[in-house]
Amino acid sequence: MTKSKLIFIGLAVALVGFLFAGSASAQDQTLSADPASVPEAGTYDFTLTPGGFTTSATNLAVCNTADPGPDGWGQATLMQYCGGFGSPQDATSGDPISVEGVEVGEAGVTFLIFELVPDGESAAVAVEIGEPMDDMMDDDMLADTGVETSLLVIIGAGIALAGVMVFGLSRRLRTA
To answer: 10 Å Cβ neighbour count for 49?
Structure first.
């Protein structure tokens, strides 16, 4: 084999390796609150149960609204509605966390457990006044999983191009 064939085969193998390395499964972090809803505004004690966390460097924030707004629970929302980044909390054990004396207003309350890193592990649960909304599920509550499709297209095109080059070089070497 020629050096160029070996280089192209190596590139193709590397691209296939990148393809499989990028498609890691997502961790599903969950957070549930007991009680899941309250009958009226007031002060309540809650028991939170986290699940699926793999890092102990998480924070617990209590936000004075059940609606994260159009931008979700970003840094500005945390500062505005939650009074900062909350308190350190280890959620890896999955043991229940007692939160006492939480003031629930007319807008409800949201509990967040999150890492202080971009795209870190996080989970939230909203407690509203009235009946729990177990049947409702919107797109904001779904986990981000998988790989961007554009990345897969680029990697696939690179592999196809490498294959065409190897095929073209092998035909050229046979005819020469």
So the answer is: 15
3-state helix, strand, coil in the chain (%, to 5): 30, 30, 40
Taking the complete model, does pTM exceed 0.90, yes or no? no
Containing H/E element for 165? Answer: helix 149-175
Token reading at 42:
């007031």
- CA-to-CA distance for 97 and 91, rounded, in angstroms? 9
pLDDT in tens, 12-70: 666 666 665 544 445 588 888 999 889 999 999 999 998 888 887 788 888 888 777 65
Query: What amino acid is encoded at 108 in this protein?
Result: G
CA pair distance 37, 33, nearest whole angstrom: 8
Q: Cα–chain-centroid distance for residue 86? A: 19
Strands (E) in 21-96, as ranges, are: 30-34, 37-38, 42-51, 58-63, 87-89
Architecture of domain 30-141: Sandwich (2.60)
